[in-house]
Amino acid sequence: MRYVLPPINAERVAEYIARRLRWYVREYAGKRAGVVGVSGGVDSAVVAFLTARALGPENTYCYVLPSFATPKEDVEDALRVIEALGLPDGNWEVISVDPILKSFEEVLGEMDRVARGNVMARIRMIILHEKAYAHNALVIGTGDKSELLLGYFTKYGDGGVDVLPIGGLYKTHVRQLARYLGVPERIVEKPSSPRLWPGQTAEGELGAPYELVDSVLYLRFEKWLPEERIAEELGVEVGVVKRILEMVKRSQHKRMMPEVFHVGQRDLGSDWRYPRQWF
Ligand SMILES: Nc1ncnc2c1ncn2[C@@H]1O[C@H](COP(=O)(O)OP(=O)(O)OC[C@H]2O[C@@H]([n+]3cccc(C(=O)O)c3)[C@H](O)[C@@H]2O)[C@@H](O)[C@H]1O
Ligand SMILES: Nc1ncnc2c1ncn2[C@@H]1O[C@H](COP(=O)(O)OP(=O)(O)OP(=O)(O)O)[C@@H](O)[C@H]1O
Ligand SMILES: [Mg+2]
Whose CA is nearest to atom 35 of ligand 1? Predict the structure, then answer.
């Protein structure tokens, strides 16, 4: 398999994202600070570094929100990020989501691991928004371009954020940016995982390494090559390419506002009907 993404200019990208994030939070939203859920993974580490660069450590709030499925090394790595940023004491906290998850299961009954994982992600979302309200802040999202295109996130969970500063960067580019920013190497090298159940890895669930996923997405959406040419170019079966692009199609609803059924002024009280072929 060939990796075809050109590298980014990490210095310029970091500068651009930090400036734009500062403008978005301060000028556009009129807020003071940013709240980040820090997992010990590379996306949230990069976003925490960029938020501190944009707004200053005193205006950056980091929350580590482990569950029973979080390895203890991840909590250690999350704390390393917080230490590296030099956040003041009141600007970070470790809060276990397990008691909240347990009370959900007591009321709703036991859930399977996917359902429980999505509830876990939505519990984190609620906590982060509560903290944002408390600190006059926005919830800074950590989704990258690969996850957003694949729909590899929980709708209204880790997807329920206010702004997506690294949403224009593929996962492999986020790792490059992480190295430039000085994110600890163990975090940069760690295989991506939502950690929604023990042993879960992103590449295991997606069925392909991110180098391949990113190459397919790049050749399709930036070079507009047809599926067969992408397969040839990367030296993989066309079925692999089709499967990745199918994930993009099926997750369109996660990248849009919910469909609104508009009712126009002239429809109210008139006998005009939508043409049959619209349905
Ligand atoms: N066509 C459509 N139009 C409008 N809405 C539609 C829809 N199809 C489904 N839906 C709605 O979407 C829901 C399904 O979406 P969702 O609840 O997200 O659930 P789903 O996509 O099934 O699962 C989330 C996936 O993201 C992964 N994940 C989650 C969290 C974090 C990370 C990470 O990388 O850190 C990864 C997780 O491992 C899993 O593979 C349905 O329950 C339904 O309500
Ligand atoms: N234990 C956790 N504590 C705090 N936030 C979390 C935790 N688990 C997930 N999150 C939030 O959900 C986001 C989505 O998880 P995801 O696994 O995609 O990102 P990551 O762990 O930062 O990087 P990677 O995708 O490489 O694992 C995280 O970036 C983080 O903001
Ligand atoms: Mg992760």
Answer: 194
| ipTM of model | 0.97
**Ligand 1 midpoint to CA 153 (Å):** 6
Binding residues for Mg(2+): 43, 147
Question: pLDDT, tens digit, for every residue of 113-126?
Answer: 999 999 999 999 99
pTM for the whole structure: 0.95
Nearest atom of ligand 2 to the alpha carbon of 142: 29
Residue with structure tokens 């500068």? 15
Q: How far apart are CA 68 and CA 116, in angstroms?
A: 12
Express each pLDDT in 82-131 by its tens digit: 999 999 999 999 999 999 999 999 999 999 999 999 999 999 999 999 99
Nearest CA, atom 7, ligand 1: 253
The domains located in the chain, with CATH, are 10-192 (3.40.50.620)
- Contact status, residue 39 vs residue 13, Cβ threshold 8 Å: no
**CA dist., res. 5 & res. 210, Å (int):** 11
Q: Which residues, by Cβ under 5 Å, contact ligand 3, an ion?
A: 39, 41, 193
